[in-house]
């Protein structure tokens, strides 16, 4: 069963995975430099833990952002707005508690709800609503599951520590 | 953004009302929103489409998940999402699907009504077989994929109703928390008649076997034009999973399960209540064989043998969708066809248009005639456009 899951997730990754490419020291088609990109990812991590999103949500948020950067020429000034909106979309897919992500737009980031809503439409349109992107978290879960089912003694040794 | 650019953008933007003619063509309404029968305005094709306007504005969590999930699903017996429109003026979300003139729910209601009016009309056996095959094929696809998506699990349980009848994933929203016991769900959506016995005895986990039981119920109903486990349900709003009358009905058709037939029944949360309220001897004379013989289905026929495997009390012994698709019933003539109406006339009326501001009570009255013979049954809030996709292949009016 885990084997099928792994194959399915791989197929999903093949279908939907896209990453931005570097060209002339910037992400292709934009004026975003790698340090700026890194900075926004670190900031997104902070936001994600501030709103108590799961690691899965954060990972998916980063992947939504990556897909968008790969698909659309994005100006640096919009980067933060794209990033936080990606995280909100990931939360909509992943989190159970609806109240939590609605607060995101109001607290601590300087974007208005209207801006975020508009960005949301742009992202969804550009990504054709394909939001179930396979993330490293999915693979970690599968590998962990495979390992534990093959070597159950590992689970015991961990719980004894 | 400068003004010129904004107006240019607005002009380029595809607006659903510019592309499709749907005014006055509402065919469904419910908590999920509204559904319209639509046609392209530019005449690029003459196909009929279904446009679903999602209730509420903006991209809510459930709308977001529903659409992302629909994008993942690809199977001939599962509805395909053609396009998403986001209206900028009122922030409504519109989904475009292929239109289906008939759905399983309509067909079932039509035959129930004809029987209740003493003019019984049997479904052609070939059509029953094709329908069952397509339902099983669709549910097998969902079952095979549900490991990928939490939402799909919630959707697939009872999903065959929404799969073949409504594809309404808006109602997957009702199943938002997987830990919630099923009985907490909107009881109108999840009717008791198709509930597997383990659910009525307090099972708290979603399983594929629950869908299979429900498919068995539908199969029996397609064969007999009567809901097999029909039961009056006055207290449909109950939060208790244990439903005495419904269990009584199941046992009076099937007989009380022998200990060896369902060993784990002792582990069910409501087993003590069952022991207290029910006597095995009451149902000594009942069996599925006798019930189906009354409806002229022979116990040695392939159709009966498959029904029996679908309606197995013990969920661990119930057949899976994969096994069912391999059943000898589907290898026997007539073979299942991809057009369920192949070679037969379609007696079912076309969908009627609803008026824009018609109050809900009125639509209730229209369907009352079906319900008279059936107690106070309240149907699930079914969306009225989608069904096994091949069902709309015939386009002529009859």
TrEMBL record, chain B:
InterPro entries, sorted: CDK (IPR050108), Kinase-like_dom_sf (IPR011009), Prot_kinase_dom (IPR000719), Protein_kinase_ATP_BS (IPR017441)
GO cellular component: cytosol; nucleus
One Pfam assignment: Pkinase
E.C. code: 2.7.11.22
Taxonomy, superkingdom: Eukaryota
Main location: nucleus
Binding site for ATP: 52
Gene Ontology molecular-function annotations: ATP binding; cyclin-dependent protein serine/threonine kinase activity
Keyword Ribosomal protein on entry: no
Gene3D superfamilies according to UniProt: Phosphorylase Kinase, domain 1, Transferase(Phosphotransferase) domain 1
Keyword Nucleotide-binding: yes
Record's subcellular location: Nucleus
Catalytic activity: L-threonyl-[protein] + ATP = O-phospho-L-threonyl-[protein] + ADP + H(+); L-seryl-[protein] + ATP = O-phospho-L-seryl-[protein] + ADP + H(+)
Residue stretches making up the Protein kinase domain: 21-330
Keywords recorded for this protein, A-Z: ATP-binding, Kinase, Nucleotide-binding, Nucleus, Serine/threonine-protein kinase, Transferase
Family: Belongs to the protein kinase superfamily. CMGC Ser/Thr protein kinase family. CDC2/CDKX subfamily.
Name this protein carries in UniProt: cyclin-dependent kinase
Naturally occurring in which organism (per UniProt): Sinocyclocheilus grahami
């Amino acid at each position: 069963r885990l084997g099928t899951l792994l194959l399915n997730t791989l197929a999903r990754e093949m279908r939907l995975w896209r990453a931005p490419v570097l060209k002339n020291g910037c992400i292709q088609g934009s004026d975003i430099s790698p340090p700026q990109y890194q900075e926004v990812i670190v900031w997104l991590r902070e936001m994600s833990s501030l709103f108590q999103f799961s690691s899965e949500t954060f990972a998916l948020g980063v992947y939504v952002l990556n897909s968008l950067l790969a698909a659309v020429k994005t100006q640096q000034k919009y980067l933060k707005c794209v990033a936080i909106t990606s995280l909100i979309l990931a939360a909509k897919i992943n989190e159970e508690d609806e109240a939590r992500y609605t607060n995101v737009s109001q607290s601590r980031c300087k974007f208005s709800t209207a801006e975020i809503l508009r960005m949301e439409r742009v992202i969804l349109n550009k990504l054709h609503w394909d939001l179930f992107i396979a993330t490293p978290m999915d693979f970690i879960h599968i590998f962990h599951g495979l390992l534990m089912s093959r070597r159950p003694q590992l689970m015991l040794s961990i719980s004894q520590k | 953004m400068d003004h010129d650019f904004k107006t240019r953008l607005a002009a380029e933007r595809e607006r659903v009302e510019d592309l499709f003619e749907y005014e006055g063509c509402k065919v469904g309404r419910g908590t999920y929103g509204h559904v319209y029968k639509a046609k392209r305005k530019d005449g690029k094709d003459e196909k009929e489409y279904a446009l679903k306007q999602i209730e509420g504005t903006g991209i809510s969590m459930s709308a977001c998940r529903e659409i992302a999930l629909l994008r993942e699903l690809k199977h001939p017996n599962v509805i395909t999402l053609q396009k998403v429109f986001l209206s900028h003026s009122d922030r409504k979300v519109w989904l475009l699907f292929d239109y289906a003139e008939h759905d399983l729910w309509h067909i079932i209601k039509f035959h129930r009504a004809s029987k209740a009016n003493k003019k019984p009309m049997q479904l052609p056996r070939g059509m029953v077989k094709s329908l069952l095959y397509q339902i099983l094929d669709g549910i097998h696809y969902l079952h095979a994929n549900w490991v990928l998506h939490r939402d799909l699990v919630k959707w697939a349980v009872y999903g065959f109703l929404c799969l073949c009848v409504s594809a309404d994933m808006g109602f997957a929203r009702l199943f938002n928390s997987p830990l919630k016991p099923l009985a907490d769900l909107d009881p109108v959506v999840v009717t008791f008649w198709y509930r597997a016995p383990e659910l009525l005895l307090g099972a708290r986990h979603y399983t594929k076997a629950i869908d299979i039981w429900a498919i068995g119920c539908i199969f029996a109903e397609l064969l007999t034009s009567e809901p097999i486990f029909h039961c009056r349900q006055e207290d449909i709003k109950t939060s208790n999973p244990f439903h005495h009358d419904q269990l009584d009905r199941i046992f009076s058709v099937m007989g009380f399960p022998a200990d060896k037939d369902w060993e784990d029944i002792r582990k069910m949360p409501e087993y003590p209540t069952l022991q207290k309220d029910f006597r095995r001897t009451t149902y000594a004379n009942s069996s599925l064989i006798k019930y189906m013989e009354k409806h002229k289905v022979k116990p040695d026929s392939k159709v009966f043998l498959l029904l029996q495997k679908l309606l197995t009390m013990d969920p661990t012994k119930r057949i899976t969708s994969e096994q069912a698709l391999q059943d000898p019933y589907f290898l026997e003539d007539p073979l299942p066809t991809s057009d369920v109406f192949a070679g037969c006339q379609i007696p079912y009326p076309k969908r009627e248009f609803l008026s824009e501001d018609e109050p809900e009570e009125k639509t209730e009255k229209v369907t009352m005639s079906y319900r008279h013979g059936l107690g106070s049954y309240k149907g699930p809030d079914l969306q009225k456009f989608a069904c096994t996709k091949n069902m709309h292949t015939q386009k002529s009016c009859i």
